[in-house]
Amino acid sequence: MSDGRMTMTRPALLCVLLAVASAATAGDDDGCVPRNFGHGSVACECNSTRCDSPGAVGSPPVGRFLTFLTSREGKRLEKGQGFVRNGTAGAALKLTVEASQKYQRIRGFGGAMTDAAAMNILSLSVGAQDKLLRQYFSPEGAEYNVVRVPMASCDFSTRLYTYADTPEDFQLLNFTLAPEDLQMKIPLLQRAQALSPRPLSLLASAWSAPAWLKTNGALIGKGTLKGVAGGKAHKTWANYYVRFLDEYSKHNLTFWAMTTGNEPTAGMMTNYSFQALGFTPETQRDWVSLDLGPAIALSKYPKTQLLILDDQRLLLPHWARVVLNDIHAARYIHGIGVHWYFDRIAPADLTLSTTHHLFPEYYLFGTEACAGWIPLDRGVKLGSWDRAEEYAHDITEDLNHYVTGWTDWNLALDMGGGPNWAKNFADSTIIVDKTRDIFYKQPTFYVMTHFSKFLLEGSQRVGVSFSAHTDLEVTAFIRPDKSTVMTVLNRSDRDVQFEVWDPATGYIPSVSPGHSILTVIWQAQ
């Protein structure tokens, strides 16, 4: 007998309740809280109690694949899955994985713990700080494994300082870390390391030597080291690097690598508006050969790697030729750091690929990038999809031209794109609104995650061939666990159907929506 109401068994009722609870949890705790600020897409709002997260992601079992989709229309690492097929579905576009074509291995992805980033993170409540750090460093988040650390102040500081501002202190007797290091950056780096399942690769870059070591007597503007390579000023500046490593090691923080200095060409410009130290490729070569290289090699940190340039890729391959063709300098160098700011006028094949083929034993690594730096398009644009596509395009292009990793600039900025003492405001993947104790994850954050979370250190790029012309931008890697990852960027207005053909596994049918980035993961047989 029935009164017309649905009846069900206790197990069935339990299943429904669990499904409802799961859906509620996903909506209340895991899904993006979208905020539209009129810049083409949405930013996702987070606070001390909730923030969307893709969760920990492993390799799918053999015969299955996973997908993650981020799009202009608002999808944020939306997960999908399916079965690898034995036969083709006949898609007009086939992307074939050429596993025998092997290229560079991944070193990592990340961002910079500047003074400004640390100040913004610490302006939040402890709960919101934890949520933010987890977004970057935990297995549930983007899984960044690289953090760039400025040595003393840069433009994204609130004051100008170095660690040795006492004039004529050539022995560095008064060398000391700043409050910005001891009270902000170091504690946050320690917290980030505690969240990360693997050791973080810290990368140090200096903006300027102390003013008393420089020809112009100031931290800003056009100025170089006094004297010549091998001289007292050059040796002191090299020892400054070792002292920095000494002081950070006291806090159990060791550095994977150091650069020879941020944007050395800036210090050669008249009236340059913030911290810089000028080098030409010739003077950088000689300083590395006679001073910095020996100082690091003879220190307690001989395994700390050294990257030259740390400037725009349009300076390649000339800069590399000058430095690396000198055997005395080259023996101390491991890689070449590049910035992204003028990539539009510096073709990747003529700069990155040419340099790789000339010097294949030295890796290329992206050390800085940010949106919102152009004077006519400066500062924060919450929800900007154009900036997300710029990131995705540049990362994909770099990876397809032998770059081994890509480092974003500030980990967090405020709503105005600062603080920045020089008013050189910019955008960031996370924007903090301390007045409301919230932070926004920009579309660029999700683009970074498509690479940092899935291209694990040691992943090796392999070839991809196309059955027909396409506007899709594609890169593929085989990870250390033997799974394959393919990232597909579609900057066009139309959806593109395609299928992946992996001769070792089978066919994966898929679609790339207009203005989206898609990551596909599968396990070889």
Automatic annotation (TrEMBL):
Keywords: Glycosidase, Hydrolase, Lipid metabolism, Signal, Sphingolipid metabolism. One of its GO terms (biological process) is autophagy. This is Glucosylceramidase. It catalyses: cholesteryl 3-beta-D-glucoside + H2O = cholesterol + D-glucose; a beta-D-galactosyl-(1<->1')-N-acylsphing-4-enine + cholesterol = cholesteryl 3-beta-D-galactoside + an N-acylsphing-4-enine; beta-D-glucosyl-N-octanoylsphing-4E-enine + cholesterol = N-octanoylsphing-4-enine + cholesteryl 3-beta-D-glucoside; beta-D-xylosyl-(1<->1')-N-(9Z-octadecenoyl)-sphing-4-enine + cholesterol = cholesteryl 3-beta-D-xyloside + N-(9Z-octadecenoyl)-sphing-4-enine. Residues 1-23 form the signal peptide. Its EC number is 3.2.1.45. One of its GO terms (molecular function) is signaling receptor binding. Residues 458-520 form the Glycosyl hydrolase family 30 beta sandwich domain. Pathway: Lipid metabolism; Sphingolipid metabolism; Steroid metabolism; cholesterol metabolism. Residues 106-455 form the Glycosyl hydrolase family 30 TIM-barrel domain. The keyword Transport does not apply. It comes from Scleropages formosus (Asian bonytongue). Belongs to the glycosyl hydrolase 30 family. It is found in: Lysosome membrane. InterPro entries: GH, GH30_C, Glyco_hydro_30, Glyco_hydro_30_TIM-barrel. It is a peripheral membrane protein.
